[in-house]
Amino acid sequence: MVKRLIALVVVFAISSPFLARGITSLNANGRIYFEDSMPSHKVAVVFGAGVRNGQPSAVLYDRVASAVELYRAGKVSKLLMSGDNRFANYNEPGVMRNTAMQMGVPDEDIVLDYAGRSTYETCYRASAIFGLSDAVLVTQDYHLDRAVFTCGVLGVDAVGYAADQRGYRGMTWFQVREIGATLNAFWELFITRPAPVLGEPVSIE
After folding, report:
1. Residue 102's Cα: distance from chain center in Å?
2. Every domain of the chain and the residues it spans
3. Fewer CB within 10 A of the end CB, N or C, for the chain?
4. What pLDDT digit, counting tens, does each position of 85-142 carry?
5. pLDDT at residue 9, as a whole number
């Protein structure tokens, strides 16, 4: 009996990450769009990624560029740039804003979330701080399923727009890491429900 119980625990531990990935993939089915087919929304939420020496990484640049594509096409009218700014010399949202403005987006149509340190925190704050009930999520394809699922559970009816504009160095590692990240998302969403950094509500206007 003990051996069977141990075997069941081992099987569950091995299979649960892949089960979680399957659930998020199924949830995102029909929610990922290309530009021409994207229904109009007021806000695109752009997820942060690495910056170095004040410049966006290739992954982050393409996220911003893809959001700008939607903005130019009239699919969204506001860009919510959400990223990490926990250190004085590290400012993902500021770099994202500068990049978007260099592409022609006026500053008044860009809103910054300085405490989007993770997918969970970005989605939580999109609802709790910025009052969003729906949005377009802009990130790379490998991340979209988890992002759409997370925002949905946290009260934001989300669709996704893939920001893949090139091949990325280390993509195999990103995809492998996503398995564990998805399992962690389920842990946060349904077990621990950690409270992110909050504050006063901010009007997206």
Report:
1. 22
2. 2-192
3. N
4. 988 889 999 999 999 999 999 999 999 999 999 999 999 999 999 999 999 999 999 9
5. 36
Structure-derived torsion over alpha carbons of residues 191, 196, 198, 203, reported in degrees to the nearest 10: -90
Q: Where are the beta strands (DSSP E) in the chain?
A: 32-33, 43-47, 51-52, 55-56, 78-82, 110-113, 134-139, 157-162
AA identity, residue 35: E
> Is the separation of the CB atoms in 90 and 54 below 8 Å?
no
Q: For residue 61, is pLDDT > 80? A: yes
Which of 72, 113, 119, 59 minimizes the C-alpha distance to 91? Answer: 113
Number of H helices and E strands in the chain, helices first, is 6, 8
The structure tokens listed for 15 are 């299979």
Single-letter code of the amino acid located at 180: G
For residues 182 and 146, the answer to whether their CB atoms sit within 8 Å is yes
CA angle 112, 115, 119 (to 5 degrees): 100
Residue at 140: amino acid letter = Q
> For a pLDDT cut of 70, what percent of the chain falls above it?
91
Token pair 């990325």: residue: 168
Nearest to 138 by CA among 147, 129, 130: 147
> Confidence band (pLDDT; 50, 70, 90) for 5?
very low
Say yes or no to pLDDT of 190 above 60.
yes
Superfamily of domain 2-192: HUPs (3.40.50.620)
Partners of 135 in the beta sheet? 158
